Amino acid sequence: MKKEEFLAAQQSREQSVAGRVRREIEWLGRGAKARTTKAKGRIQQAGEMMQELAGLKERNAQSAAAKIDFTASGRETRKLLVAKNISKRLGDRDLFHNLSLTLSPRSTLGLLGPNGSGKSTLLKVLAGEFEPDSGEVRRADQLKVVRFEQNRALLNKSETLRRALSPTGDTIMHQGNSMHVSGWAKQFLFRSEQLDLLVGDLSGGEQARVLIARLMLEPADVLILDEPTNDLDIPTLEVLEENLSEFSGALVLVTHDRYLLDRLSTSLLALDGRGGATAYIDLAQWEQAPKPSNAVKAISSTKPARPKSPSRPSSKRLTWNEQQEWSGMESAIAAAEKKVSDYESQLADPAVVADHRRMHTICADLAAARSQVDTLYARWEELEEKQL
Questions:
Q1: Which of 144-153, 157-166, 268-277, 303-312 is the least confident region?
Q2: For the whole prediction, is pTM greater than 0.70?
Q3: Could you give the residue ranges of the DSSP H alpha helices within 61-180?
Q4: Which ranges in the chain belong to alpha helices (H)?
Q5: Which residues are CB-contacts of 203 (< 8 A; sequence separation ≥ 6)?
């Protein structure tokens, strides 16, 4: 039991550090300036956390209790899909024009672009759901393409969770092994008593886990994921990331999650929404590239954008109360982020892991603390913009 508690604590610690690393990468990506001793310290701390996360991942690799294991077909060809000079229009607007790309095993193409730039349309063209207006898409013989829908449209909201996870009975086959649906459900954090609930009554995160469970059962050469991380909790997100990194087919990814995109992508393609498409090696290269004045930045956060610099706004634009609020904003954010860190540390405590009621309470407190951080950053931005 002591060993199990230790392993559970290590897994919780990894999830906690991963959540903090995700937030720090987001902060750094917003152009944080190392102008103060405090900012320099935070940048150094972010680097240390990344090193700690790498070590935790390595130590926990052999002790993971459940893994999402996407099944690749094992196809050997070097070219799974080749798109040559493809174009697609929406009304009188070019989404992409004369675009060429190749998908090969163990490659991940990350797609960037503002909303409406054609990312989802390109995914459907690659999947064979749409035909290009011009050009051609050549696919390997009997290519298996599996696509994850952002809008959960593939789910039948009126069927039970049991049938959604196992359509043909109470037994599923995964990689040649049979498993009862209740055991399969537990791998995706569902309780047995939830099996008879309707899919439409599940939360967004639970519905996403149902889709992931179904994806696992489909052998694929090309896996197309459109915003797979929406509504996912940190444990499910971490498992998803680990197993996507081990997928041996080709992966095409659209996500607002900077950490996931930067970690998995072997190449990036940015659509500008006006027919143009530019290839980049990584996010850093894309972010440093000049953007058209009317372009919208493709990578945003699910959280409100943080101001690039906490420079004090002119008091002429703020009321006295707002000026006082601004003066205390940095310390308020620091205190709120400390609460988040404290709750995350508690979740790494073996005693908490063993006490499900206490763990549930702390998880709720952690969610509320994270929401408070988001609210404070949104207010910070509001005060920042008021002076402009």
A1: 303-312
A2: no
A3: 119-127, 161-165
A4: 2-29, 37-60, 119-127, 161-165, 181-186, 204-216, 234-245, 258-264, 283-288, 320-327, 329-347, 350-354, 356-386
A5: 231
With contact defined as beta carbons under 8 Å apart, do 370 and 347 qualify? no
What's the rounded Cα separation, in Å, for the pair 51 and 21? 10
**Per-chain mean pLDDT for the chain:** 75
Residue 293 buriedness (CB in 10 A; 0-12 / 13-18 / 19+): exposed
Distances in whole angstroms, Cα of residue 27 to Cα of each of 20, 294, 326? 11, 24, 19
Packing angle, helices 356-386 and 329-347, rounded to 10: 160
Instruction: Please state, as a whole number, how many other Cβ atoms lie within 10 Å of the Cβ of residue 301.
Output: 18
SS3 175: coil
Compute how many other C-beta atoms are within 10 angstroms of the C-beta atom of residue 56: 18
Gyration radius of the chain over CA positions? 23
Query: Going by DSSP bridges, is the β-strand pair 171-174/177-180 parallel, antiparallel, or unpaired?
Result: antiparallel
